[in-house]
């Protein structure tokens, strides 16, 4: 029964990795921009929630509701005034700029909050669990996983059922022709990053309640996010969830065999998938 | 007052100058053809009018308003839609979504709606859920025309809608032109096929090497004059 338990924990952990990855996937999918500061933006959001919690005494969930529009606004401005300028045929400028942003954010957080690790107070939720017969699962991991599914459902509805979603896909296909439809690619890109920052805030909420964080953990979250996106196949959000689950299960299984193997097992799973499916599990038909 | 006029319109690609002071005009209700050999600058002229290439404000005037410096989205919002060369459907969008996206930047009341376009091109209604790029070339061209019409533009620019299509298909597509005009839109059609252009147009401009070399009505232009303007005269 211990194996079922390990598997379930891994799947639920995959929900957290999917939350890390979805924002990255949106931004890459719509504007072919690899945001190397994505992990650090998750950490920034976690600190923002932390500050709101300690200033107001609100629950982290309410604080995240307040942080979300602020993060979205910051994302909008960042894309509109900085990142849009780096987009073009050359893929190097966005990488350099977001790499620089990553380092700047880490240092700003170090300056403001020191290197001490922090945690969002989850209250009784931190230890609450549900007995499902064969396994006992934590309420918080369950909530994380459910949130990942809710986020993906909402985003798929947005992308495939709304006019804004059509504009996202059209701009991603061909920005010049999209502008003939009255679409402004610069605004569409800013809106996409704002939406990605909403997801980043959700990811930060669960990251901060689940484990300790400090200003330097961003890059590792970025790696997990990357691996989840690439395993899933670029452009498919359900694929991204599958990617997150594969990494999560590999990590918990690895840790069950030998605690030192946890992180390594996730990366090995990533490499194995790439070996057999170089374009990921659910690649987009058109690209 | 003309619906559209250009005034000494120039355009550049980097150091390369592609238009050298083009003056054309389109009157309300008119269909104007622009003909010229490959590389004459027809597409560049269309892109400059549509705002894909930006110009000085007064170089393009539409309904009395200087639009030369506006971006493509603003020009489209002002009521000027373009069917781009090569159709350029969005591969991620279905036929219906390709049509719907055409009015993203302009929700103007008028004769054209999804239903009206399916009525104009019934095959598109049958294939509404297919990916846009799964259609034949002629059907894709119909989608591209419908996508531009659905915003109910005052002026429709069509850049080589016959490009790469079989003669019967070209005839089907041009059969829609009278209905488009009756519904109220003025038209600019760019064509390399002179015969086709002369059939639909009230007036014709011929371009060569970034300049207008001839202007006239189809009945007054002789074959020789067009030939000279098209290929250049060795004097
Ligand atoms: N994107 C571009 N970059 C550089 N030169 C271009 C570009 N597009 C067109 N040109 C040049 O501009 C001239 C006019 O081209 P174009 O407007 O496409 O002509 P047409 O539509 O009449 O065939 C040609 O000499 C062509 O090579
Ligand atoms: Mg052309």
From TrEMBL, chain A:
Residue intervals passing through the bilayer: 12-34, 41-71, 91-110, 130-159, 186-207, 228-249, 261-277
Cross-referenced InterPro entries: ABC_transp_permease, BCAA_transport_permease
GO cellular component, one term: plasma membrane
Localisation: Cell membrane
Keywords associated with the record: Amino-acid transport, Cell membrane, Membrane, Transmembrane, Transmembrane helix, Transport
Membrane topology of this protein: Multi-pass membrane protein
GO biological process: amino acid transport
Signal sequence, start to end: none
Pfam families for this protein: BPD_transp_2 (PF02653)
A GO molecular-function annotation: transmembrane transporter activity
Family the UniProt entry places it in: Belongs to the binding-protein-dependent transport system permease family. LivHM subfamily.
Protein name per UniProt: Branched-chain amino acid ABC transporter permease
Taxonomic path: Bacteria, Pseudomonadati, Pseudomonadota, Alphaproteobacteria, Rhodobacterales
UniProtKB/TrEMBL annotation, chain B:
Domain ABC transporter: 4-234
InterPro entries (alphabetical): AAA+_ATPase, ABC_transporter-like_ATP-bd, ABC_transporter-like_CS, BCAA_Transport_ATP-bd_LivF, P-loop_NTPase
Xref: SMART domains: AAA
Signal peptide (from-to): none
Record bears the keyword S-adenosyl-L-methionine: no
Keyword Transport: yes
Protein name in UniProt: ABC transporter ATP-binding protein
